[in-house]
Amino acid sequence: MEDVKNNSGQNLGIAALITAIITFVLAVMPCVGLIAVIPGIIAIILASVGLSQASRSNTPKGILIASLIIGVIASLISVSQVFVASKIAKNADKWPNEIQNIVREVQDDVVKDLQDANISIKIESNGEKVEINTTTQNKEKEQKLEELEGVETQKNDTLQQKK
Amino acid sequence: MILYSRKNKSDQRSHQKLTDRPYYIINIVFAGVIVLMLIYSGIFSPEKNNYPVVCIHERLTGVTCFSCGLSHSFSLIVRGRIEEAYEWNQYGMRVFLFFFAQLLFRLDFLRLSLKRPENIKQLIIYDSIASLIIFLISFWPFITNIFKDLFASFAV
Questions:
Q1: How close, in Å, is residue A117 to chain B by CA atoms?
Q2: Are the beta carbons of A120 and A132 closer than 8 angstroms?
Q3: In a domain? residue B4
Q4: Is A80 an 8 Å CB contact of chain B?
Q5: Which residue, A30, A42, A53, A119, could crosslink A9 as a Cys pair with Cβ 3.0–4.6 Å?
Q6: What is the rounded CA–CA span in Å between residue A58 and residue A148?
């Protein structure tokens, strides 16, 4: 009976150590590090159960303590990966808005640049050439319009002095 | 007297076997896991892109992580296409070498522990130290990246 107890504690220790080491290697890799917390918890449970059995039957606890320490460190690394991933995911929600704002800014800049641009389009087809030249120069047009409106408004708005 | 000493020796041997068993089992299991990993890399090809294990980090965050492309890299290394392996993941080669070195370690330490069971404690100490050093060398970029990300997320 005693031998069975000893063996069970030792077997748990072996299982816990193997699980803990595999968890440790997995936890370091971000691809699978997020789910490494599951085998980490399993390793901790196995080690703690094994430790309780070993303390009852006074058997060596070296493997069990080592597996518990490795399991805890691996689980902490995995939890930190979860924390980092959640932060990235939170920021990722903000990124579309930021990208949208940047696109809008670029769009505005392009529109502003085009306001005073001279555009020429050349089309060649079967020896025939068509050239279209156009200038937007919206600013000049706006100025002219304002001048014209200004003159008109001045004419309209000025009260005629009574003689 | 002779009978007593023989019995004592046989008791010692049986006791050694019991205490040494975990080390044998651990070595065999890890060697098996690494062989399975090599088989996995050999079965799944980068051309078909039929890997069952996907990057959970990328699935959750939409951002590729530091270890993305390791499976492709391993498959290419197994097939001898080293340059392409570097393109998939620049640290693929050093991680693969870690696992390959571990496979050799497991087999060699198992052989040594069976050959000289009286030195098993020394063997375990040498094995632990050597494995830890190789692990740190191979995974150092990953470890530093984890801490960088962690500090950066705390800063944000």
A1: 40
A2: yes
A3: no
A4: yes
A5: A53
A6: 104
